[in-house]
Amino acid sequence: MQFAQRLDHFKFNVFAEMDQAKAEAIALGQDLIDLSLGSSDLPVSPPVLERIQASLGDPATHGYALFQSTQPFRQAAARWYTQKYGVSVDPETEVLQLIGCQEGTAHLPLAILNPGDFALLQDPSYPSHSGGVHLAGGQVYSMPLRAEDQFLPRFEQIPAAVLAQSRLMILSYPHNPTTAIAPLSFFQTAVQFCRTHHLVLVHDFPYGDFVFTRDQPVIELAPSVLQADPDKTVAIEFFTFSKSFNMGGFRIGFAVGNQQLIRALRQIKSVVDFNQYRGILNGAIAALKGSQELIQDTVHTFQTRRDVFVDQMRNIGWDVPLPEATLYIWAKLPQPWEQESVRFCTDLVRQTGVAASPGIGFGKSGEGYVRFALVHPPERLVEAVDRIAGFLNGESVA
């Protein structure tokens, strides 16, 4: 049987390899502490669940959810966005319901790229960013993110020949996996760069609330790209309920931005799905309209976990940085694994039951790093670090 050549880009998947290693560890009797996936272990707020539960008994929610039926959700999203970021949003033309950010980053390139066009992507970056480009027949130009540059790309290093063929740039801050944040001035530079070179600017924004604040408001440390492009000339942004509202399994998010881009993404979406179940949309509306204290409590929980994990790692001699945002730790690998992130992670989980994500899975520039997701209570994180210490010391960890 012959398959499309585009599948060649998806043959090697380090996360599938890690999934196999986790299964083997469980089969060997290991107690799995999975720090490889950024799936929150915290509960959804009761008012959201109650609104979804009430919808289940309403037959009017049981049919297809076409675009017009999503209007209450889009109106709530627009109000929430305007109140939070001070950017006026038209719910009819500048908001589109999504099944998570990943749907947006995977589908939008189909509306923007012709075969052979370039997309400018961060390296490392979330895997669906390159996946969507490859599905559209585009080419990826990787913008390396380096610690010495605060993990911000240097636009001046992009070759002119690549820019001439480029149609799209994808950014994401706070950044997965590096945990970096970007100031508003960076986004202003990015917007101007994209205007100059006629690029669509996509901002994947799942961790906008996940900033461990100092003395500045969260929106100053994690601004929306639309604050730099309030007229929405080139930009579109994707928001998910998976992190801020702990609704990962409900698969709900939205796009907000340039109305032409929203319309194009809606055209792609119309041949793929009929939108999310209306009961889940009702729950998402309750989340947007309800108390935002849950978000603050969630972020505080992950800040506590961050502090515990970093302290424990430093105590065992692994000097990992203290991240300013997200729910991850992005750590340079120690000897002798500096350039073998897959081997480190597969050996670690098989021998100790602790699962992490190899940096190479996020791009070439991710090699030499490992990502830990803080998705367990502090006591389990302490236990995980104890097992990591034994692994680093060559001990057999049961």
Helices, by number, come to 15
CATH architecture of the largest domain: 3-Layer(aba) Sandwich
How many whole angstroms does the radius of gyration measure? 21 Å
For the biggest sheet, the summary is:
7 strands, mixed
What is the CATH third-level topology name of the largest domain?
Aspartate Aminotransferase, domain 2
CATH class of the largest domain: Alpha Beta
Corresponding CATH superfamily of the largest domain? Type I PLP-dependent aspartate aminotransferase-like (Major domain)
Q: How many separate structural domains?
A: 2
Structural category:
alpha/beta
Q: Please provide the count of β strands.
A: 12
The sequence of SSEs as H and E is HEHHEHEHEHEHEHHEHEHHHEHEEEH
Could you characterize the architecture of this molecule?
The structure is a single chain. This protein is of the alpha/beta class and 398 residues long. The chain has two domains: 5-43 and 294-392, Aspartate Aminotransferase, domain 1; 46-289, Type I PLP-dependent aspartate aminotransferase-like (Major domain) (Aspartate Aminotransferase, domain 2, 3-Layer(aba) Sandwich), CATH 3.40.640.10. Helices cover 41% and strands 14% of the residues. It is built from 15 helices and twelve strands. The chain has helices at 14-27, 46-56, 71-85, 101-112, 127-135, 160-164, 184-196, 218-221, 225-228, 241-244, 259-270, 278-289, 293-315, 341-352, 378-392; strands at residues 33-34, 95-98, 118-123, 139-144, 166-171, 200-204, 235-240, 253-257, 328-332, 354-355, 357-358, 369-373. The strands form three sheets. A seven-stranded mixed beta sheet has the order 2-8-7-6-5-3-4, with helices on both faces. Strand 5, helix 7 (184-196) and strand 6 (200-204) form a beta-alpha-beta unit. The protein is globular, with a radius of gyration of 21 Å. It starts with 13 loop residues before the first helix and ends in a 6-residue tail after the last helix. The model has no long low-confidence stretch (mean pLDDT 94).
